[in-house]
Amino acid sequence: MNDMSPQERQLVEHLSDMNEDDALALARRMLLDEGADPLRVLALCRNAMDIVGKRFEQGEYFLPELVLAGEMLETIGAIARPLIVHAPGEAPAKLGKVLIGTVHGDLHDIGKNIVSFMLDINGFEVRDIGIDVPAQTFIDEIRAFRPDVVGLSGFLTLAFDSMKETINAFDAAGLRGDFKVVIGGGQIDETVRAYTGADAFGTNAVDAVNLCRQWMG
To answer: What are the residue boundaries of the structural domains of the chain, listed by start?
Structure first.
């Protein structure tokens, strides 16, 4: 996002520098007093979370910072969500069902939470089954929920093996042909996608939403 106003840049800085009070006050002012586009504000949050993720990988930030970042995001998301307008009287039809979770061995949920949120506000029925999810739990949830798309999230490189194991487990259970699998989080690229056997990868929440839209036709 190179086209940020000074105020938008300030919000990204407050969020990525862990200035919680300043970040939340500015986000509230932008959303509630100035009528900023809530989707734009959420995109700025995503931008800040990318910075937080990089600082975590470089050893500048640790788990407490990731947790705080996630809490700030949830607070801003709760303010932004009611402001996203649909046509008057329209309860948008659900486009499809998405099951999402962070694979076993990984405890990160910031990226997953953003994707869940973005899918939800874009008209998908989302079931988020949390972090450190074993393959068998995914399988049980798939049988109960019957999703069109399964999203596997993971921030650490060790998650790539967990993603591969989980997708192999779908195969072994005879479920693999019933849905599409998208992976995301951290440094995921085409090589990782091919290694895990996923149908596609998303580099951010907007990617994930667009993929799900394409698959739903």
So the answer is: 6-83, 97-215
- pLDDT per residue as tens digits for the range 115-151: 887 788 778 999 999 999 999 999 999 999 999 999 9
Whether 195 contacts 214, CB under 8 Å:
no
For the whole model, what pTM was predicted? Answer: 0.69
Measure CA of the first residue to CA of the last residue in the chain; give whole Å.
Answer: 28
> Which element (helix H / strand E) includes 102?
strand 97-102
CATH 1.10.1240.10 assigned to domain 6-83? The reply is: yes
197-206: which pairs have CB atoms within 8 A and are 24 or more residues apart?
A: 197/164, 197/167, 197/168, 197/171, 198/152, 198/163, 198/167, 202/115, 204/46, 204/50, 205/46, 205/111, 205/114, 205/115, 205/117, 205/118, 206/43, 206/118
Structure tokens at 20: 């919680």
CATH of domain 97-215: 3.40.50.280
